[in-house]
Design brief:
Aminopeptidase, four-stranded mixed β-sheet, zinc ion binding, zinc
């Protein structure tokens, strides 16, 4: 698809009722109610706490695509993008009828509603659903597995979000979007099924490189059959992991939302128009593997010595995402005090060898949370 056309569609169809990071059943149920007269909207199960797990089906085509988001409750960017996508596909003026004629999409917008409400990765039983693919010990896991078995998808989209620590390779480029064609055996064999997933990822990467060059990564493909993607791939269903990451100063993940939307549309168009056999999988290997190279903030050349003793180090700060009064707040926390030569900050501050003190005038300490720091008697706000 034409990049400018995708961007125009996004601006027109971005779901205005979904924004920032805290997306729950309460957020999406009014939207689902609006959709139920146009699409097949169902409750397909209940969570540990009895909250509804919803689904939306759209399209009439023979190519079946299963998409699920918020398996981890605090990874909501892809959920926003799913509703942007549904809005787009419902608009006949989008000229995407060919996608709906070729494909049937089965969408689970929030698989883990309890985790979404609590803004946690795990479900109400403190189980990571993405490590429960074999045990199927949780009701949410059983719901997804049942849909997989009854819908019998030809493709799976496993939609997630990733932390701000990741770089696209050993660079100072943030991994804004990441992908993975999961392994389906312990030897990480490049199977025909994986080649199909790799080919689709290659097309998405080519599109994203025009917008966010060198900001796309892939994950290590070490095999873990407890992971849902690895399990579905092992059943010979091409499965793609999507990871919504960090774009510069976009902690609300609204720009990343656009790039996930772009990826979804590009891949669906490609699937609709082509018979994919994995012949063009090689481009996948041009995408660099993610590395952990970032802090949210690095204060360089900071005097962190006690008393009159000078000690020049770097200070690595990560934002802790905390749900406070129904809103996700970002609380700066000191993670490292050492030379961080091989790391980058999404924001960097040069202390110029001045003492860096906390808000109480005390020396900075690891694990302390600080809204601001003092450098040379100047108050520096760490997040605003």
């Amino acid at each position: 698809m034409n990049t400018e056309a995708i961007k125009s569609l996004f601006l027109k169809h971005k779901e205005a009722h979904l924004k920032h990071r805290y997306i729950t059943n309460h957020s999406i149920e009014p939207l689902l109610k609006q959709l139920q007269n146009k699409l097949e909207v169902d409750i397909i199960g209940k969570s540990v706490l009895g909250n509804s797990i919803h689904s939306v089906k759209i399209g009439t085509g023979s190519k079946k695509i299963l998409m699920w988001s918020q398996m981890h409750g605090n990874e909501s960017t892809t959920t926003k993008a799913l509703f942007d996508l549904l809005n787009t596909l419902l608009d006949q003026g989008s000229n995407l009828s060919y996608v709906l004629k070729a494909c049937t999409l089965y969408v689970i917008p929030i698989l883990n509603p309890d985790g979404a409400a609590a803004y946690t990765r795990v479900n109400a039983n403190k189980i990571d659903l993405n490590r429960d693919a074999q045990d199927l010990s949780q009701p949410e896991s059983k719901v997804l597995n049942a849909i997989f078995n009854t819908f019998k998808p030809h493709f799976c989209y496993n939609l997630h979000g990733q932390r701000t620590i990741f770089s696209a390779g050993n660079t100072n480029n943030s991994a804004t979007v990441s992908f993975l064609a999961p392994a389906q055996d312990i030897d990480c064999t490049i199977t025909p099924t994986r080649k199909i997933a790799m080919e689709i990822i290659g097309t998405m990467n080519a599109k994203l490189q025009k917008e966010i060059p060198n900001q796309v990564g892939v994950y290590d493909d070490a095999f873990n059959l407890n992971c849902v993607g690895d399990t579905f791939q092992s059943k010979n269903v091409p499965t793609i992991l999507f990871e919504a990451g960090h774009f510069h100063e976009d902690y609300a993940r609204e720009k990343t939302r656009e790039y996930i939307y772009m990826s979804m549309l590009e891949s669906l168009s490609y699937i609709a128009k082509n018979t994919i056999d994995g012949s063009f999988y090689d481009d996948y290997f041009d995408i660099p593997e993610n590395e952990k190279r970032f802090f949210d903030i690095i204060i360089r050349n900071a005097d962190v010595g006690e008393g009159y003793k000078s000690k020049i180090e770097d200070i690595g700060i990560m934002f802790q995402e905390k749900l406070i009064s129904g809103k996700v707040e970002f609380i700066p926390k000191i993670e490292k005090i050492e030379k961080l030569t091989n790391f980058y900050g999404h924001k960097e501050i040069d202390a110029n060898r001045y003492k860096v003190l906390d808000e109480f005038g005390d020396c900075i300490k690891i694990d302390s949370e600080n809204v601001f720091v003092m450098i040379n008697n100047e108050r520096i706000i760490l997040f605003s």
